[in-house]
Amino acid sequence: MFEAINIASTGLTAQRLKMDVIANNIANATTTRTTEGDGPYRRRRVVMQPINLRTRWKSPVYPFGLRTGEGQGVRVVKVERDETTPTRLVYDPGHPDAIKVGPKKGYVEYPNVNPVTEMVDMIAASRAYEANVRIINGEKEMFQQALLIGR
Q1: Burial 73-106 (b: 16+ CB within 10 A, else e)
Q2: 57-101, pLDDT tens digit by residue?
Q3: Are 124 and 45 in contact (CB under 8 A)?
Q4: pTM of the shown model
Q5: How many CB atoms lie within 10 A of CB 62?
Q6: Largest Cα–Cα distance in the chain?
């Protein structure tokens, strides 16, 4: 009975985490040194996947059942660092984090965060969050109408 609300709530949780990660990316877009001291901040992204599909129609022929294609929401698998996109190099020999030796001497490594891309991702996550809220509100209205019919 409350299945749609449960599914939408998994989407709310996942999109909220995604918005938090994006906000963290934007906040660290110019951070040249992390607290661990391992160079500039690296962009992070949320990896999601559908929660296992519902299994039905168990029988002696199919003891484990058949999957019906009905999902049960989404879950966050991990938050991973983007190691594939290169960092930006800006020549600034006076910067305290400038590279001291080698062919990149005088360059400062900046994060691989593109604020425009992050804002687009934030808008998409925000709209997905709003869609899940609308689903929950729609379900709530249907339950209220069902209660009124029962009077």
Answers
A1: bbebeeeeeeeeeebbeeeeeeeeebbeeeeeee
A2: 666 666 665 565 566 889 999 999 999 999 999 999 999 888 899
A3: no
A4: 0.81
A5: 11
A6: 80
